């Protein structure tokens, strides 16, 4: 696993590098957003980026947004010194898969990195079919891609996991707690809001509008379901 660490404070960056390498991960570092984007473009084989929110120059939000645009399937974890919900939501809306609030335990952060990587590359049992067809969508399980009318819709690793969970159970309402546990793991310490933010991002990507077909439907007070559309 190759990890990009973007952190402007050298002591924290050194701490992250030491602990991640000790865990057996390949680490590249950047002190500014501009440097991180350059490194990501040069390496192009980075699995996960750890991005600090408060940076000199371009912000962590901007970096996250640009990384997501260039590398749709890159895993991104946001580091923030703020605990307000609005900062977490903004990070998630910028494309982050997860967030960790400073001060944090290096052991916890390493565990979050490994958990995100497992979501990106799950060790799944062989399936009798390698795709799920729910017109106009096709979910390619082997390639971890979502197609709409044969057009690729780039999803983050977390978004793909949510779509897969719901498309495997079409027409069934899935509780938000179940989504959180299935996608982020039973020991995830974050808030349910992370589910709603990712659902919102998925809706934008699949082109769901209020007046159009409700593919991804909200079950108020409970969770979400993938609606089977009539032929």
The share of residues in helices is: 40-55%
> What is the ordering of alpha helices and beta strands?
EHEHEHEHEHEEEEHEHHEE
Can you count the helices? 8
Contiguous runs where pLDDT drops below 50 for at least 5 residues: 124-128
Compute the average pLDDT: 87
Give the overall silhouette: globular
User: Structural class per helix/strand content?
Assistant: alpha/beta
Radius of gyration: 18 Å
Strand order of the largest sheet: 2-1-3-4-5
List the helices and strands and how they pair.
Layout: E1 2-6, H1 10-22, E2 26-30, H2 33-43, E3 48-52, H3 60-70, E4 75-80, H4 85-93, E5 98-101, H5 106-120, E6 131-134, E7 137-140, E8 145-148, E9 151-153, H6 157-167, E10 174-175, H7 176-184, H8 193-206, E11 216-219, E12 223-226
Helix pairs in contact: 2-3, 4-8, 6-7, 6-8
Question: What does the model show?
Answer:
The strands form 3 sheets. This protein has a 5-stranded parallel sheet, with helices on both faces. Strands 6-7-8-9 form a 4-stranded antiparallel sheet, covered by helices on one side. Helix 4 (85-93) runs parallel beside helix 8, helix 6 (157-167) packs across helix 7 (176-184) and helix 6 packs across helix 8 (193-206). It contains 8 helices and 12 strands. The radius of gyration is 18 Å and the shape is globular. With 231 residues, it is an alpha/beta fold.
């Amino acid at each position: 696993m190759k990890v990009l660490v973007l952190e402007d404070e050298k002591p924290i960056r050194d701490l992250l590098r030491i602990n991640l390498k000790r865990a057996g991960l390949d680490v590249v570092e950047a002190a500014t957003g501009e440097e991180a984007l350059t490194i990501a473009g040069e390496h192009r084989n980075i699995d996960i980026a750890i991005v600090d929110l408060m940076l000199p120059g371009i912000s962590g939000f901007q970096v996250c947004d640009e990384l997501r645009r260039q590398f749709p399937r890159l895993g991104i974890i946001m580091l923030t010194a703020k605990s307000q919900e609005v900062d977490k939501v903004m990070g998630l809306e910028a494309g982050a898969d997860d967030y960790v609030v400073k001060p944090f335990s290096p052991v916890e952060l390493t565990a979050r990195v490994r958990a995100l990587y497992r979501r990106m590359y799950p060790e799944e049992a062989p399936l009798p079919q390698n795709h799920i067809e729910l017109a106009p969508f096709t979910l390619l399980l082997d390639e971890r891609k979502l197609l709409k009318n044969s057009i690729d819709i780039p999803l983050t690793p977390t978004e793909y996991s949510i779509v897969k969970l719901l498309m495997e159970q079409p027409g069934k309402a899935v509780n938000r707690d179940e989504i959180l546990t299935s996608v982020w793991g039973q020991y995830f310490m974050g808030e349910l809001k992370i589910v709603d933010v990712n659902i919102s991002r998925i809706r934008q990507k699949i082109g769901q509008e209020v007046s159009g077909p409700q593919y991804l439907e909200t079950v108020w007070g409970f969770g979400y379901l993938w609606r089977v559309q009539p032929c």
